[in-house]
Amino acid sequence: MLQLPKIIQGGMGVGVSNWRLANAVSRLGQLGVVSGTALDSLFARRLADGDKDGNMRKGLDAFPFPEMARRIWQEYFVAGGKPSGTPYPTAPMHQRVEPRKVIELCMVANFVEVFLAREGHSNSVGINFLEKVQMPHLASIYGAMLAGVGYVLMGAGIPLHIPGVLDAYASDRTAEYKLSVAGAMPDLDSMMRFDPAEYSEGPLPLLSRPKFLAIVSSNTLATTMLRRATGKVNGFVIESPTAGGHNAPPRGKLQLSSTGEPVYGERDRVNLAELRALGVPFWLAGGYGSPSKLREALDEGAAGIQVGTAFAFSEESGLRQDLKRTLVAQAVAGKGEVFTDPLASPTGFPFKVAQLNGTSSDAGVYQARKRVCDLGYLREPYATEDGKIGYRCASEPVANYLSKGGKVEDTVGRKCLCNALLANIGHAQTRKDGAAEPALVTVGDDLNSVVQFLAPGQLSYSAVDVVHSLLSGVASMQPAVAAD
Fold this sequence. Notes:
484 residues; TIM Barrel
């Protein structure tokens, strides 16, 4: 039997849920989760900054393919760190058929993050991916499994093919993943493939299959995952529209409130009785970051809760200290504001944004930023007129997007989340004119509730404080278990 965690720490942003945060949570017997989004770019920038604490090197030294680790170190490490105010090097953007150096960087980056999150304890660690960011999936998941990741969590789409990928790697087989391509004809080859044997520097390591948790927002999607997924779905995280980051669009025709936010109704509520009938463990997310809400979730038959916002502002998270201080101070004053922006994300999913001067939530900052797409994680693959696959992003320069068949109305209000999320954690790109990419902070609607974790007179708290507080009302309950 497998003991299930009562608390899953959300896999937030790019590097907000970093290895330090996941390590701290997992040490306490709950599920610490690292964000797998854009880990390759983040890893390269950590090396470009000189790896001052030596942790990236420690992870590289543990990587099972030493020649690959050596190549990555030589390519990206800058002794002493790059000069202040100079640009970070950019790795090639992802595509269906990846150059080997792109695949290797992805593998190594995911390995190192999970390895460091697992260091010093024997509890499970998870990794969170966005289904919509498809092109890095195969290499990223393999790198995480090389490091012994215990759970893979995925939302922002319908991740039907991921369980089969996990099965393939655990059996030393080539994994396949069909890329979604807009406008593709049936004869277009959009399959991505990864053969572990092509990258191993000796016998293939024996890998354990991690548990797979699908992040869903409806009963229909949960049922679809159980019926149609290519392998076993071990559980669900049920996210309500109040959760931070990308939200599922409301069901039916989009309606906006007087403030311009998507309106969610009864059709967007999950029927927990139907969910319980599926017989699969589930965790509730979105506004569940309090002891009373954990108790409520357990009483409803959930295995526990997923909590994001509370951990995002903990001392261990990767969010920049100045952003933490400002937003926590707003929360203490009861003035933190979060706007569910229906336009910000180039994916078309609503995206929750903390309202904060100096970030791209400020219209003036957004308008002043020159459009550029040089990371490309949220690009949409599309079928070109000559039968090939092209890539476009609604946040790229408008003329470029239109030249690729995009519609001008799809560019209105779109923001470059890729660059903004790296800026959130202190790795903002510097442009030729010396300007640094602005941040754009995403948090859940319960931003102001983080004050519950503050000790009197304090403006910061730890992940340990969050876990102990959340568990304070359920300490006497027996842990949930599931068949291993």
